[in-house]
């Protein structure tokens, strides 16, 4: 069990991390997560909804979400969000510790990308997400896939202020099930830098296959649970 750093140390880490990795460059893994969420929102076929993005980082995804309704973005990174307000004044950005914030209302949809693994009490986090959803509201969640990261990737140890508690598909299901009706959980973004999956996912190995069948092999790997990210769509129990 990793030691829980004070919230001030966590805030410093995420301000620096988001300034380095999310204000200037959005990686393929994030793009794929956003693609899935946009697909879910399109399937709802509802306009003008209220959306909360928990752990919005630099706010990069909020403008896309805003095409579906009113968006509130929240993150611990107060310095980064101050800059986000200047870039996207149409978004309501609220800086602070999500577990202590009161948003003064509930939302139709909550989006949260790669936040669960950084929460010291994951059950309490899921419970709080539920309290900010209207009955029948949707949770759209992405989190790191413990099965893939532990077996097939070299990941540096956590930095000071960085909590790391990955989950696998079964653990994620158990966390969500008490509060939500789970529509689907699946993996996306096959990625590996060690073991047999390094070869299977290599660009050299996949180039001739993609030339023949496009992205179908990548989608097969995702369906087999070999993606970097677990995506979950769930509806709050009424």
UniProtKB/TrEMBL annotation:
Gene3D superfamilies: Vaccinia Virus protein VP39. InterPro entries: SAM-dependent_MTases_sf (IPR029063). It comes from the Bacteria. It holds the Pfam family Methyltransf_23. This is 3-demethylubiquinone-9 3-methyltransferase. It comes from Paramesorhizobium deserti.
